[in-house]
């Protein structure tokens, strides 16, 4: 009871402070409570009153005190100090004002810990300058306070990017090329580098056109944002890497258009997966153009063991076999469905033999990982 009451007062006090500090429209429950007024509402208890006056009336002794009054637990505070030791000696006034700002946004202590964890210097940044204008813009963009807060916890830099020279122009740029604000929200959430790294040069726009992805396509926003945050050299490297497997530049760009995420795979990953698909599975390269998902499979967990099992089934003369189009279907199945369809459909002794072979094929993974220290680079064909 006592601690709840203290917490209540602390909360009201801080909330009031944050309302003073920010210029949000005041609603009925945001009146400024003085510490004393709130105390008189509580059952009289000397000890409690002393404590409350001690908490509210005094100035905080140090930054730890500031965090504690703001609502951080001892664990939160130790996490914060571990991540950014300089905060132990932070200027109390500045710290209080930053924290009030953040409280006004609806941030709580667990959100604060996450923010400090990913941006240790965040509380030393000038987040208060021009804050109202920025918040108004961002709240409109995200559509709600809740979503904005979520975005800020994921990417605290939303409060520190240069608002006029970076945030606004970047959002306007995307609108100009046909990515609406609404479509941009999930992109902003999933790609924290979107604002600082976006550039859409004429060359990049030409690539986007050549991928053939239409502005109405669900993939358009992905295509545009991935190209916008990639360096031109990187895009070229990835193009050339796929061309080595016999595709023309337009075929590769078409592949990007159908499956923009191929552009997020590293040159190395594409090479290893392509090499397996072509070299070991003996599938034609052109199949990757129609089934880009082949590039996304985990080689060691799905592609290789299922392929090895297919060989075993053929060798044992069993039906159904996993070949031709059935192979593509089989690769996309969940583990359970795959085993039901091709392994446990046989008599017990056969099932056991197949299962052994499948498990062995997966076990190779561990051995392979142990020797993976020195990954072979370069082109194997
Ligand atoms: C007043 O506080 C003391 C010490 O915390 C506690 O033991 C006591 O139960 C409280 N009295 C009332 C009426 O809340
Ligand atoms: C902190 O706020 C987030 C929303 O921003 C919420 O999901 C979470 O439950 C809150 N945590 C606590 C301890 O109140
Ligand atoms: C093939 O690509 C997928 C998706 O990126 C990845 O998880 C897998 O590890 C890759 N395989 C190899 C051998 O790199």
Automatic annotation (TrEMBL):
GO terms for biological process: DNA-templated transcription termination. GO terms for molecular function: nucleic acid binding. It holds the Pfam family mTERF. It comes from the Eukaryota. Keywords: Signal, Transcription, Transcription regulation, Transcription termination, Transit peptide. Residues 1-18 form the signal peptide. The keyword Transit peptide applies. Belongs to the mTERF family. This is Uncharacterized protein.
